[in-house]
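May I ask for an example protein's residues together with how it folds?

___
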Amino acid sequence: MDAADLTSCSDIFRRTIEDYGLAGGWHWTFAPDEQRWSPGFFRLLGLDPAVATPRYDLFVALVHPGDRALLASPGEIVQGHVSPSATVRLIRPGGELRVLSVLSELRVSPDGRPLAVSGVALDVTDRERLRHMQAAEQRRRQALYLTSYTATYSLGPDLVHHFPAEVAQVHGLSLEEIQVDPFLMLVPDERAAYRDRGWEMYERHMRFQGTPRERLASGEVIRFRLVGVPVWSAAGEYRGWTGMKYPVHESGAPAGRPDTPEDPSLQRALEQAVRGHHLRAARGLLDWSMARLAEAAGLSLSTVRRLEDNIEAQGDRSRFKAVTALRRAGIRFVAMDDGTIAVAKL
């Protein structure tokens, strides 16, 4: 959402987000040079309406020097030159940095003479931070495959595999090819068997794991470990797979990879695969009662009983709390190549 979206919102919604300090508006009538700011605009700028006088040049002065060119200057606005929309960094008097999406609109007379300008601003700091974090994560994933051939992927209901573009680059295929059929990366004599097994596990909503050989664009053949894990919503709806691929030695040991996946979504999906008999086995290794597990996980006894009876949805948050408590106590849930999960105690 940005400032332009506010024009299609109801007055009630705009007032609500302004009350929360997320939006504000301003108006400048050129004759007789009258400027007004809404209470929300004062809050966005970090100014006290009892002290500060609404002036467009004051607003521009608070904008980060590197972004001021994105807004029209006071002189340009009076002449009728307005920047319709911009996203700028703003430094409040207290030193806090915020990011604003600004929309401006010029009003002119029938003969084209500039009369007034109005604007709205929306605080999009969190959105921009998230965008930068996602971009940084994407760069990390890209560099990871180029340097270590390690990547995470996802497969949704659209049956399209989402890999970093670098996977295609390393294997000498197009990204479109591996999105539709990632098994093209495998050597021909293993391709069909893994493809059939992979789709079977996907359709049965089961874990998939294997160690096929893959050919790189250089012609080198490397053995990879492939992991695909079903993902469920909190309501128990099947959302597809999340997975990881990384190179392994011929012995099957990770080639510079830890046992535990780094990707949080994959770790969470693996924990969703823990069922009631796994929890009972883990309790047995720790010599815990249901009540002890409930206490350690911050759950009710009845919830633990439902988890062990497989009544709770696979994506239910209580499952993660139980698994986390058992992990803290020294239990490991180990994914095996045949799709089963082994339970061990450190």
Observations:
- Confidence is low (pLDDT under 50) at residues 250-262.
- The CA atoms of residues 160 and 180 lie 6 Å apart.
- The first strand starts at residue 23 and ends at 29.
- The radius of gyration is 28 Å.
